[in-house]
Amino acid sequence: MILEALTETLKLLFIVFILMVVIEYLVLRFEKKIRRYITGNPFTQYLVASALGAIPGCIDAFFVVSLYTAGIVGFGALAAVMISTAGDEAFIMLAMIPDTALIIFGICFVLGIVGGFLADIFVKKFNLKLSKSCCVPVHKKEKVITLKHFVKEHVLGHIVKKHMPKLFLWLFFTLLVINWALANLELQSLLPKNYLWLLVFAAIVGIIPESGPHIMFVVLFSKGLIPFSVLLVNTISQDGHGLLPLLSHSIKDTIYLQVFTTLFALGVGIILFLLGV
Which residues form the domain of 25? Predict the structure, then answer.
């Protein structure tokens, strides 16, 4: 179990590292253009983040989290990608329930945009104090960013030294705890029989940043044991591994995001319940 958690951690750490290097370089070279065409318009942030989230896999979520920590996009974009994404479970959905999967991806894309807009209202309404972004260090004396300077100061000095150790610890211990829980707890036996409570349960299980619990809902739906609405609510609520890098940046922001996406998923679930879907 330890080896499995370590292997998965190193795989995720490598992906996040590559994305952070790419974003660091892009911000250094094209910061004004990025802020003008993406950061400047909140709707563009929601649209781009939600579109990225609709792409199967967790890399899109990692990418938006990296943009958020760099201060390129705001909390609304972060919520948009997490609502829209189905994580790595999207591949399983495409394999087991392809027609339904495409419908869910389309719905989550639209809901991601709506959720991103509401998330920024949520932050202002409750006057939430978000953590400061980790700005890319710009050295005024360095007029031209050479490869040697970029590797030494930005990749090794900033990303590897400042971010990687903390990110490794968060990923490893989180995955270790989750893998233990999945191996020792029978989540299927915990499913409530009442439809409304099943929706609530689906939203709450989505908080777990791991594929196992969500796959359970995909399998149950494919066998006709749960309705479409329950699968949709769980998909909206869950973020896959995409949320883990945010933990190393800010526990507070992670909690805010989880609270919002869970409440948003519950809101969608209650509407579906009232409509009898």
Answer: 2-275
